[in-house]
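#struct-queue
[09:14] JT: dropping the first one here, sequence first, then the C-alpha coordinates:
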Amino acid sequence: MSVKVLFICSGNQCRSPFAQAVLTKMVKNGGGEDIVSESMGTISMGGESASSNAITVAKQMGIDLSGHMARHVTEDALEEFDKIIVMENNHRDAVLRMVPSCESKVSLLGSYVPYPMAGDEIPDPIGMDPMAFRTCFSTIIEAVQLFYKSILEEMEAR
Protein backbone atom coordinates (compact mmCIF):
# COMPACT_ATOMS: atom_id res chain seq x y z
CA MET A 1 0.00 0.00 0.00
CA SER A 2 1.49 3.32 -1.02
CA VAL A 3 1.66 6.50 1.02
CA LYS A 4 1.24 9.75 -0.90
CA VAL A 5 2.81 12.80 0.72
CA LEU A 6 2.22 16.42 -0.28
CA PHE A 7 4.58 19.11 1.01
CA ILE A 8 3.16 22.63 1.02
CA CYS A 9 4.73 26.05 1.52
CA SER A 10 3.84 29.50 0.21
CA GLY A 11 5.30 29.91 -3.26
CA ASN A 12 6.53 26.34 -3.84
CA GLN A 13 9.94 27.77 -4.72
CA CYS A 14 11.99 26.83 -1.70
CA ARG A 15 10.89 24.84 1.35
CA SER A 16 8.33 22.40 -0.01
CA PRO A 17 10.28 21.41 -3.15
CA PHE A 18 13.38 20.95 -1.00
CA ALA A 19 11.47 18.76 1.49
CA GLN A 20 9.99 16.73 -1.36
CA ALA A 21 13.41 16.24 -2.96
CA VAL A 22 14.93 15.20 0.37
CA LEU A 23 12.19 12.62 0.96
CA THR A 24 12.54 11.30 -2.59
CA LYS A 25 16.29 10.88 -2.07
CA MET A 26 15.73 9.10 1.26
CA VAL A 27 13.22 6.70 -0.31
CA LYS A 28 15.63 6.00 -3.18
CA ASN A 29 18.53 5.32 -0.81
CA GLY A 30 16.76 3.77 2.15
CA GLY A 31 13.65 1.94 1.05
CA GLY A 32 9.96 2.56 1.29
CA GLU A 33 9.45 2.55 -2.47
CA ASP A 34 5.72 2.88 -1.86
CA ILE A 35 6.25 6.42 -0.52
CA VAL A 36 5.63 9.02 -3.21
CA SER A 37 5.75 12.76 -2.72
CA GLU A 38 5.03 16.03 -4.46
CA SER A 39 5.10 19.69 -3.49
CA MET A 40 2.81 22.66 -4.06
CA GLY A 41 2.31 26.20 -2.79
CA THR A 42 -0.62 28.08 -1.33
CA ILE A 43 0.16 31.30 -3.21
CA SER A 44 2.08 29.97 -6.19
CA MET A 45 0.85 31.05 -9.59
CA GLY A 46 2.45 27.91 -11.02
CA GLY A 47 5.38 27.56 -13.38
CA GLU A 48 7.97 29.53 -11.40
CA SER A 49 11.37 27.95 -10.90
CA ALA A 50 12.90 27.43 -7.48
CA SER A 51 14.56 30.57 -6.11
CA SER A 52 18.20 31.05 -7.07
CA ASN A 53 19.35 30.88 -3.44
CA ALA A 54 17.32 27.69 -2.95
CA ILE A 55 18.91 26.10 -6.02
CA THR A 56 22.44 27.10 -4.94
CA VAL A 57 22.16 26.04 -1.30
CA ALA A 58 20.28 22.84 -2.14
CA LYS A 59 23.02 21.88 -4.61
CA GLN A 60 25.63 22.38 -1.87
CA MET A 61 23.57 19.96 0.23
CA GLY A 62 23.34 17.34 -2.51
CA ILE A 63 19.83 18.18 -3.75
CA ASP A 64 19.04 19.33 -7.29
CA LEU A 65 16.19 21.84 -7.55
CA SER A 66 17.23 23.22 -10.93
CA GLY A 67 14.37 21.58 -12.83
CA HIS A 68 11.65 22.40 -10.31
CA MET A 69 8.53 24.21 -11.51
CA ALA A 70 6.17 25.57 -8.87
CA ARG A 71 2.55 24.42 -8.67
CA HIS A 72 -0.47 25.84 -6.90
CA VAL A 73 -2.24 23.55 -4.45
CA THR A 74 -5.69 22.37 -5.53
CA GLU A 75 -8.67 20.81 -3.79
CA ASP A 76 -8.22 17.66 -5.87
CA ALA A 77 -4.60 17.33 -4.73
CA LEU A 78 -5.56 17.77 -1.08
CA GLU A 79 -8.10 14.99 -1.37
CA GLU A 80 -5.69 12.71 -3.25
CA PHE A 81 -2.80 12.70 -0.75
CA ASP A 82 -2.59 10.62 2.44
CA LYS A 83 -0.36 13.07 4.31
CA ILE A 84 -0.20 16.83 3.86
CA ILE A 85 2.90 18.37 5.40
CA VAL A 86 2.95 22.15 5.75
CA MET A 87 5.68 24.57 6.79
CA GLU A 88 3.59 27.16 8.67
CA ASN A 89 0.24 27.45 10.42
CA ASN A 90 -1.06 29.77 7.70
CA HIS A 91 -0.50 26.94 5.19
CA ARG A 92 -2.53 24.62 7.41
CA ASP A 93 -5.27 27.25 7.57
CA ALA A 94 -5.30 27.67 3.77
CA VAL A 95 -5.54 23.90 3.29
CA LEU A 96 -8.40 23.59 5.76
CA ARG A 97 -10.29 26.48 4.15
CA MET A 98 -10.10 24.61 0.85
CA VAL A 99 -10.91 21.11 2.17
CA PRO A 100 -11.93 21.07 5.85
CA SER A 101 -12.31 17.28 5.82
CA CYS A 102 -8.56 16.73 5.42
CA GLU A 103 -7.69 18.08 8.86
CA SER A 104 -6.51 14.69 10.12
CA LYS A 105 -4.00 14.45 7.23
CA VAL A 106 -2.33 17.84 7.86
CA SER A 107 0.71 18.33 10.06
CA LEU A 108 3.52 20.84 10.44
CA LEU A 109 6.90 19.54 9.26
CA GLY A 110 8.57 21.28 12.20
CA SER A 111 6.55 19.15 14.62
CA TYR A 112 8.82 16.21 13.74
CA VAL A 113 12.00 17.75 15.17
CA PRO A 114 12.73 16.93 18.82
CA TYR A 115 13.56 20.46 19.92
CA PRO A 116 11.13 23.32 20.41
CA MET A 117 10.53 25.64 17.46
CA ALA A 118 8.27 28.68 17.33
CA GLY A 119 4.92 27.00 16.82
CA ASP A 120 6.63 24.13 14.98
CA GLU A 121 6.89 26.41 11.95
CA ILE A 122 9.76 26.45 9.46
CA PRO A 123 10.11 30.13 8.45
CA ASP A 124 10.45 31.19 4.83
CA PRO A 125 14.03 32.22 3.93
CA ILE A 126 13.00 33.91 0.64
CA GLY A 127 14.57 37.36 0.45
CA MET A 128 17.23 36.47 2.99
CA ASP A 129 20.90 35.59 2.61
CA PRO A 130 22.21 32.08 1.78
CA MET A 131 22.92 31.39 5.46
CA ALA A 132 19.17 31.63 6.18
CA PHE A 133 18.58 29.03 3.44
CA ARG A 134 21.23 26.73 4.93
CA THR A 135 19.63 26.99 8.36
CA CYS A 136 16.16 26.40 6.93
CA PHE A 137 17.27 23.49 4.77
CA SER A 138 19.19 21.86 7.63
CA THR A 139 16.02 21.95 9.73
CA ILE A 140 14.02 20.52 6.83
CA ILE A 141 16.50 17.66 6.38
CA GLU A 142 16.28 16.74 10.06
CA ALA A 143 12.48 16.99 10.10
CA VAL A 144 12.08 14.97 6.89
CA GLN A 145 14.41 12.25 8.24
CA LEU A 146 12.21 11.89 11.31
CA PHE A 147 9.01 12.10 9.24
CA TYR A 148 10.36 9.40 6.89
CA LYS A 149 11.19 7.17 9.86
CA SER A 150 7.65 7.62 11.17
CA ILE A 151 6.14 6.65 7.80
CA LEU A 152 8.31 3.52 7.60
CA GLU A 153 7.22 2.54 11.13
CA GLU A 154 3.59 3.15 10.18
CA MET A 155 3.95 1.02 7.05
CA GLU A 156 5.57 -1.80 9.07
CA ALA A 157 2.71 -1.74 11.57
CA ARG A 158 0.12 -2.31 8.82
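[09:21] JT: and here's the second one, same format:
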Amino acid sequence: MKYEVIDNFLDKEYFDSLVTLFTEKKNKERTTWAFENSIVYPKEHKKWKEENKLFYMTHTLYNNNAPMSPLYKHTFPLLEKLGAECLLRVKANLYPNTEMIHEHPMHVDYTYPHSGALLSLNTCDGYTKLKDGTKIDSVANRILLFDAGEEHCSTTTTNTLARFNININYIQEQKL
Protein backbone atom coordinates (compact mmCIF):
# COMPACT_ATOMS: atom_id res chain seq x y z
CA MET A 1 0.00 0.00 0.00
CA LYS A 2 1.42 3.36 -1.03
CA TYR A 3 1.30 6.08 1.64
CA GLU A 4 3.20 9.12 2.87
CA VAL A 5 3.73 10.45 6.40
CA ILE A 6 4.70 14.09 6.87
CA ASP A 7 5.64 15.49 10.28
CA ASN A 8 5.06 19.17 11.13
CA PHE A 9 2.70 19.42 8.17
CA LEU A 10 1.17 22.77 9.14
CA ASP A 11 2.83 25.90 10.47
CA LYS A 12 2.70 26.02 14.28
CA GLU A 13 0.33 28.98 14.61
CA TYR A 14 -2.33 27.53 12.29
CA PHE A 15 -1.96 24.02 13.73
CA ASP A 16 -2.36 25.35 17.28
CA SER A 17 -5.53 27.18 16.22
CA LEU A 18 -7.00 23.89 14.94
CA VAL A 19 -6.09 22.12 18.19
CA THR A 20 -7.79 24.88 20.18
CA LEU A 21 -10.85 24.75 17.93
CA PHE A 22 -11.43 21.03 18.49
CA THR A 23 -10.10 20.41 21.99
CA GLU A 24 -10.59 23.46 24.19
CA LYS A 25 -13.73 24.68 25.90
CA LYS A 26 -12.54 28.31 25.98
CA ASN A 27 -12.81 28.54 22.20
CA LYS A 28 -15.32 31.17 20.99
CA GLU A 29 -16.70 28.81 18.35
CA ARG A 30 -17.70 25.67 20.21
CA THR A 31 -17.20 22.30 18.57
CA THR A 32 -20.31 20.20 18.94
CA TRP A 33 -19.51 16.51 19.01
CA ALA A 34 -21.96 13.90 17.73
CA PHE A 35 -22.09 10.53 19.46
CA GLU A 36 -21.39 7.60 17.11
CA ASN A 37 -22.31 4.24 18.63
CA SER A 38 -20.38 2.38 15.97
CA ILE A 39 -16.85 2.79 14.66
CA VAL A 40 -17.60 0.64 11.61
CA TYR A 41 -20.97 -0.16 10.10
CA PRO A 42 -20.90 -3.39 8.07
CA LYS A 43 -23.11 -6.20 9.38
CA GLU A 44 -20.13 -8.54 9.66
CA HIS A 45 -18.82 -6.38 12.53
CA LYS A 46 -22.06 -6.57 14.56
CA LYS A 47 -20.63 -9.13 17.00
CA TRP A 48 -17.42 -7.08 17.42
CA LYS A 49 -19.49 -3.96 18.21
CA GLU A 50 -21.63 -5.79 20.77
CA GLU A 51 -18.61 -7.36 22.51
CA ASN A 52 -16.47 -4.21 22.69
CA LYS A 53 -19.10 -1.53 23.36
CA LEU A 54 -16.85 1.14 21.89
CA PHE A 55 -17.97 4.50 20.56
CA TYR A 56 -16.45 7.68 19.27
CA MET A 57 -17.49 11.26 18.62
CA THR A 58 -17.41 13.14 15.33
CA HIS A 59 -17.87 16.66 14.10
CA THR A 60 -18.73 16.69 10.40
CA LEU A 61 -17.41 19.79 8.68
CA TYR A 62 -18.20 18.90 5.06
CA ASN A 63 -20.25 16.08 3.50
CA ASN A 64 -22.62 15.44 0.59
CA ASN A 65 -21.18 18.33 -1.45
CA ALA A 66 -21.90 20.93 1.21
CA PRO A 67 -20.45 22.52 4.33
CA MET A 68 -22.08 20.98 7.42
CA SER A 69 -20.56 23.23 10.09
CA PRO A 70 -19.63 26.89 10.49
CA LEU A 71 -16.19 25.59 11.56
CA TYR A 72 -15.55 24.33 8.02
CA LYS A 73 -13.99 27.68 7.06
CA HIS A 74 -11.15 26.98 9.49
CA THR A 75 -9.99 24.05 7.34
CA PHE A 76 -9.37 26.13 4.20
CA PRO A 77 -5.58 26.53 4.71
CA LEU A 78 -5.29 22.78 5.39
CA LEU A 79 -7.31 21.88 2.29
CA GLU A 80 -5.29 24.31 0.18
CA LYS A 81 -2.00 22.83 1.36
CA LEU A 82 -3.29 19.34 0.51
CA GLY A 83 -4.32 20.43 -2.96
CA ALA A 84 -7.73 18.83 -2.42
CA GLU A 85 -9.53 19.27 -5.75
CA CYS A 86 -12.89 17.64 -5.03
CA LEU A 87 -13.96 17.13 -1.43
CA LEU A 88 -15.92 14.09 -0.38
CA ARG A 89 -15.93 14.58 3.40
CA VAL A 90 -14.11 16.43 6.16
CA LYS A 91 -14.67 15.42 9.76
CA ALA A 92 -12.99 15.62 13.12
CA ASN A 93 -12.80 12.47 15.26
CA LEU A 94 -12.57 12.08 19.03
CA TYR A 95 -11.72 8.58 20.29
CA PRO A 96 -12.15 8.41 24.10
CA ASN A 97 -9.54 6.93 26.39
CA THR A 98 -9.86 3.20 27.14
CA GLU A 99 -8.00 0.99 29.64
CA MET A 100 -6.25 -0.85 26.83
CA ILE A 101 -5.71 -0.02 23.16
CA HIS A 102 -8.64 -1.24 21.08
CA GLU A 103 -7.93 -1.71 17.40
CA HIS A 104 -11.12 -1.19 15.41
CA PRO A 105 -12.02 -3.50 12.50
CA MET A 106 -10.55 -2.80 9.08
CA HIS A 107 -12.74 -0.68 6.83
CA VAL A 108 -12.69 1.58 3.78
CA ASP A 109 -14.00 5.14 3.88
CA TYR A 110 -15.56 4.85 0.39
CA THR A 111 -15.59 1.78 -1.87
CA TYR A 112 -13.53 3.36 -4.65
CA PRO A 113 -9.96 4.71 -4.81
CA HIS A 114 -9.64 8.23 -3.42
CA SER A 115 -7.21 10.31 -1.42
CA GLY A 116 -7.34 10.28 2.35
CA ALA A 117 -5.54 12.61 4.72
CA LEU A 118 -5.50 12.02 8.46
CA LEU A 119 -4.08 14.89 10.53
CA SER A 120 -3.30 14.05 14.16
CA LEU A 121 -4.21 16.88 16.52
CA ASN A 122 -2.47 15.34 19.53
CA THR A 123 0.26 12.88 20.39
CA CYS A 124 -0.88 9.66 22.02
CA ASP A 125 -0.37 5.91 21.91
CA GLY A 126 -3.18 5.46 19.38
CA TYR A 127 -2.43 4.78 15.73
CA THR A 128 -3.82 4.09 12.28
CA LYS A 129 -3.10 0.67 10.85
CA LEU A 130 -2.94 0.09 7.10
CA LYS A 131 -3.98 -3.15 5.38
CA ASP A 132 -0.34 -4.27 5.05
CA GLY A 133 0.08 -4.06 8.85
CA THR A 134 1.97 -0.75 8.90
CA LYS A 135 1.12 1.30 12.00
CA ILE A 136 1.25 5.08 11.81
CA ASP A 137 1.55 6.57 15.30
CA SER A 138 -0.59 9.54 16.33
CA VAL A 139 1.84 12.43 16.60
CA ALA A 140 0.63 16.02 16.82
CA ASN A 141 0.82 17.78 13.44
CA ARG A 142 1.62 14.55 11.59
CA ILE A 143 -0.41 13.82 8.48
CA LEU A 144 -0.93 10.45 6.84
CA LEU A 145 -1.68 10.58 3.10
CA PHE A 146 -3.05 7.34 1.63
CA ASP A 147 -5.77 5.75 -0.48
CA ALA A 148 -8.69 5.63 1.97
CA GLY A 149 -10.47 3.30 -0.46
CA GLU A 150 -8.10 0.61 0.82
CA GLU A 151 -8.58 -1.10 4.16
CA HIS A 152 -7.28 0.60 7.29
CA CYS A 153 -8.33 0.95 10.90
CA SER A 154 -8.14 3.31 13.85
CA THR A 155 -7.57 2.73 17.55
CA THR A 156 -8.37 4.17 20.93
CA THR A 157 -5.74 5.62 23.26
CA THR A 158 -4.69 4.81 26.82
CA ASN A 159 -2.30 7.62 27.69
CA THR A 160 -4.34 10.77 27.00
CA LEU A 161 -7.92 11.81 27.65
CA ALA A 162 -8.79 11.26 23.96
CA ARG A 163 -7.28 10.80 20.51
CA PHE A 164 -8.16 13.69 18.17
CA ASN A 165 -7.72 13.86 14.40
CA ILE A 166 -9.14 15.42 11.27
CA ASN A 167 -10.08 13.00 8.49
CA ILE A 168 -10.30 14.34 4.93
CA ASN A 169 -11.52 12.31 1.95
CA TYR A 170 -11.03 13.89 -1.46
CA ILE A 171 -10.28 13.37 -5.12
CA GLN A 172 -6.98 14.69 -6.34
CA GLU A 173 -6.07 15.12 -9.97
CA GLN A 174 -3.49 12.56 -11.08
CA LYS A 175 -0.14 14.14 -11.90
CA LEU A 176 1.24 12.92 -15.23
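[09:30] RK: nice, looked through the second one.
[09:31] RK: The chain is about 15% helix and 35% strand.
[09:31] JT: good to know. The chain has one domain: 3-23+36-171.
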